[in-house]
Amino acid sequence: MSELRYDLLHDEYILIAPERLHRPLSLQRAAEPPEPALCPFCPGHEDLTPPEIYALRDSKGWHTRVVPNRYKAVQIETPFEAHREGVNERWGGFGAHEIVINTPRHDATLATMSEEEIFDWLYTVRERVADLSRDQRLVQIDCFKNHGLAAGASQPHPHSQILALPVMSKAQKAQFRHAHRYWREHGRSLYEDIIEQESRERTRTLIEGERFFSYCPYASSFAFESVILSRNCANITELNEEALRELAATVGQLFVRLHRELGPFAYNLLFILPPVNRNFENEEFFDELPRLHRFYLRITPRIYTLAGYELMSQSAINPVAPELAAGRLRSDDEPSR
Ligand SMILES: [Zn+2]
């Protein structure tokens, strides 16, 4: 039984989730990734996953599936009740933890998936975020994709995870409070100002689309870190079909370029989403979110290992200047997909 504990020392919430200990670490155990014959996410093995929550299907079969995480950190059936013991506070592990199977193709990567396949995956994520947002008890929805052992992935089949919790993380609170302060002081969203600055300098830009702007951040924490930023939507749920198609094309193009420069590489891909329901942590800025936040994807290649300094300071040492990374990733001749 998992629980959410409040860390009084560092003012953050920690998930204690013993169930996670039992998950199979396929990538770690075997030098060779497991065969599709043994993969629980491959077509034909639907009975190896818990019952489906959502799927995109046509007459030939499914394109994406969403299932509860078998080794979930939290569950929606747990009552959301606080227990206080002196200065300590904990909640039963209430929340949602879902797996999105991005494609039926076991060996696909974001560099080899078609725009249509990437669109189906992003569409599925949008639908799940919209559905979970309707549960007023859930506040923060984290969606992420881990790829490769160095990024924490335990299954090689392309998948992503959605973790929805009744509280915000310390990092998210800090990010939104900062964006709120900036908006109050300048009367503009900091994202608008970043796009304006980057468009002027053009040393870190990657792909400049009508609805999305991608670039390597000025102070990137990771080598080849890349961001795909919506020009005017605060949440993935606001993207219409056209915007989702542009996003799918941008993701595909960027991953082809990353693969060209880095070869096969481990990475985390994070969907930076605003809190979806008001609570005591976000009431000061919740109503302003459409003005002060922009939805973005953050791609952090895990080429170098994080060590003591990074853990202690929560800040990074990045050996590759973002201007150099962007120069390598910006391409005059478009790589073929
Ligand atoms: Zn598979």
UniProtKB/TrEMBL annotation:
SUPFAM superfamilies in UniProt: HIT-like (SSF54197)
Binding site residues for Zn(2+): 39, 42, 106, 157
Q: Which residues form the Galactose-1-phosphate uridyl transferase N-terminal domain?
A: 2-166
Question: Which keywords fit this entry according to its UniProt record?
Answer: Carbohydrate metabolism, Metal-binding, Nucleotidyltransferase, Transferase, Zinc
Q: Where is the Galactose-1-phosphate uridyl transferase C-terminal domain?
A: 177-259
Query: How does the cofactor attach, per the note?
Result: Binds 1 zinc ion per subunit.
Q: What is this protein called?
A: Galactose-1-phosphate uridylyltransferase
Gene Ontology terms for molecular function: UDP-glucose:hexose-1-phosphate uridylyltransferase activity; zinc ion binding
Q: Its Enzyme Commission number?
A: 2.7.7.12
Kindly list the cofactors needed: Zn(2+)
Q: What broad class of enzyme is this?
A: transferase
Q: Name one Pfam family in it.
A: GalP_UDP_tr_C
Gene3D superfamilies named among the record's database cross-references: HIT-like
Which GO terms of type biological process are on file? galactose metabolic process
Concerning InterPro entries, the annotation shows: ADP-glucose_phosphorylase (IPR053177), GalP_UDPtransf1 (IPR001937), GalP_Utransf_C (IPR005850), GalP_Utransf_N (IPR005849), HIT-like_sf (IPR036265)
Sequence similarity: Belongs to the galactose-1-phosphate uridylyltransferase type 1 family.
